[in-house]
Structures are given as structure tokens and as C-alpha cells.
Amino acid sequence: MKAEMAEQVAAFPARFGRVPCLAVILVGEDPASQSYVKGKAKAAEVVGIESRVILRPEETSEQELLDLVAGLNADDAVDGILVQLPLPKHISEDKVISAIDRSKDVDGFHPLNVAGLWMKRPCTVACTPKGIIRMLDEAGVEISGKRAVVLGRSQIVGLPVAKLLLDRNATVTICHSRTADLAQVTRNAEILVVAIGRPKFVTADMVSDGTVVIDVGVNRNPEDGKLCGDVDFAAIEPKASVITPVPGGVGPMTIACLMENTIECFLARMGAKA
Ligand code: NAP
């Protein structure tokens, strides 16, 4: 996917006079966020997209951040704006995300993009849910008519991926921390998407043979400190027909979709189609 995008972007200078530009804002020094931002800048480099990483100290005020976003909104050379979450507690994430120009919202978190997804209007779809559907398609999984179970109902993963699965005619069940008899529900899944943020929470007895398992979780395994998913990969892999590893599964696909969203925002601003 990245090679195809690199080829597409290589043709842009001749066609449009420049390549797409993605601005990534990081407030503070959270190591996980630093590593995500690095990964995004690296992917942009591979695809040939210009990236501007803007670092601001933890003490940055909400107004300073809003002013920074306003400046990037007004900057014609910037096609995509991403504010790395989470933000420090004294800054309202809702306010900052809503302040990003909708047409530059490459993360798809702006309320108008979220509304567009639910109302089936043209919009930028959030990268992780978009990437999950792409992975299912690339694995040749038929979604239509399947029983899909989504574990987790966050605004950035669980809910949008459930909507995308529904739009592809799956029958979708959304589970959360108060779901009773969770294992009974998950055992009924033909496609199981897990996004809860609990290391190895989904055990082999919760999954039926032949299930397609998409593990979104990124956690530190308390036993060895290594990265692991929400799913006990070693125990479930023999039962699953498809299973995504952590790391190396949903994460890289999310970043690839971020590059795709940046290209789409760029082309829309240029008044062109892909
Ligand atoms: P979140 O906002 O913390 O939401 C967690 C969801 O899981 C909530 O809906 C919660 O239910 C549910 N939950 C928690 N404990 C549960 C339990 N014991 N049983 C059933 N449901 C439970 O998380 P998120 O932002 O969606 O992220 C989830 C995970 O995905 C995290 O590990 C995060 O790091 C990872 N992630 C990965 C990517 C990627 O690109 N790979 C992108 C985003 C997030 P309630 O609603 O009832 O509280």
C-alpha cells in the first residue's frame, strides 16, 4: 500500500507543483506519543509526503495550541493537521480537535467528519477503523452477512469500526465493560474486533474455531514488559482463521491509512481526484 502511494505522490510535483504536507503537533514528552509521532513522520518520508513535526512543551496553554492550529488552518501549504492524543489534562481535546479545519482533519476526529460517517456523507474516516476494514478486505474476509462482535465502544475505534462493519452489511454487536456474559457473546462472533486496552484479556475459551480476530489493543505485558495486544495471541492463533499480531498488525495499517487520508485531503484541496 505504501509503495503504491509513493508512486502516486511521486507524480504530484509535475501535476500540482508540490507534494502533500502533513503537520503533526505533539504537546509534552510522553514516550509512547513521541514514538507514534516518529512512526508517522517516518511513514510520510517513505511515501514522499512532507511532514512538519511541531513540538510544544507540556505547559503550552490551550489558547496557544488553538492559535497554532488556527495558523496551520490558514497555511495554504499545509494539507493535513494531526494533534497527537492524549493532550495534557489542562487542554480540552474536544476544543482542539473541533478547531482543526475539517478539510485538513486527517485523523477523522472532527465532529463533522464523525457525523459524516454516521450519516453516510462524504467524510474523512478515522485511520484505525478504516485500516481494520482494509485488513479484512486484504485478507479476503467476506463481511456481508457475518456476525461481527466489537469489544470496546470508544469514539476513535469501537464505535466507528462497528458503523463501518454495519455499512458493509455485517450484523454487529457492540460490547463494553458492562456487557453480561461477554464470553457467550464473543463465542458467537465470526468476526471479532477487540479494542479495550487490556493485555491478553481475550482468552482462547472466548473464541470459536474459525473466527477472524482483529486485535487493536496496544499494551505493555505486565509479565515481561513487551508490547502485546488485548488478545492472547499464542493461545488463539491455532483457532482463528485470521488473526492480527501486536505489534505489526493494526498499528502499521493505521499509519498507512493516515498517509492515504493525507493524500485524499491534498487532492480535495487541489480540486482533483486520485
Ligand atoms: P478506550 O477509549 O479506553 O475504550 C476502551 C473500551 O473498552 C471502552 O468502551 C470500555 O468499556 C471497554 N472495556 C474496558 N474494559 C472492558 C472489559 N473488561 N470488558 C469489556 N469491555 C471493556 O480505548 P480505545 O482508545 O478504543 O483503545 C483501545 C485499545 O486500542 C488501547 O490499547 C489503545 O492503545 C489501542 N489503540 C490502537 C490503535 C492502533 O492503531 N493500533 C489506535 C487506537 C487505539 P466502557 O465504554 O463500558 O468503559
Describe the protein's architecture and organization.
This protein is 41% helix and 15% strand. Helix 3 crosses helix 11 and helix 7 crosses helix 11. Strand 8 and strand 9 form a beta hairpin. The protein has a five-stranded parallel β-sheet. The chain is built from eleven helices and ten strands. The protein is an alpha/beta fold. The model has no long low-confidence stretch (mean pLDDT 97). NADP nicotinamide-adenine-dinucleotide phosphate binds next to helix 11. NADP nicotinamide-adenine-dinucleotide phosphate (NAP) binds next to helix 11.
Write the layout of secondary structure elements.
Elements: H1 2-10, H2 12-16, E1 21-27, H3 31-47, E2 50-56, H4 62-74, E3 80-83, H5 93-99, H6 111-118, H7 127-138, E4 147-151, H8 158-167, E5 171-175, H9 182-187, E6 191-194, E7 212-215, E8 219-220, E9 227-228, H10 233-236, E10 242-243, H11 250-269
Helix pairs in contact: 3-11, 7-8, 7-11
The site of NADP nicotinamide-adenine-dinucleotide phosphate has 25 residues, from helix 11.
Strand order of the largest sheet: 5-4-6-7-10
Structural class: alpha/beta
From the N-terminal CA to the C-terminal CA, the straight-line distance is 14 Å
Radius of gyration: 19 Å
Helical element count?
Answer: 11
Percent range for β-strand residues? 15-25%
Shape: globular
Extract low-pLDDT stretches.
none
Helix content: 40-55%
Give the SSE string.
HHEHEHEHHHEHEHEEEEHEH
Heteromolecules bound: NADP nicotinamide-adenine-dinucleotide phosphate
**Sheet of most strands:** 5 strands, parallel
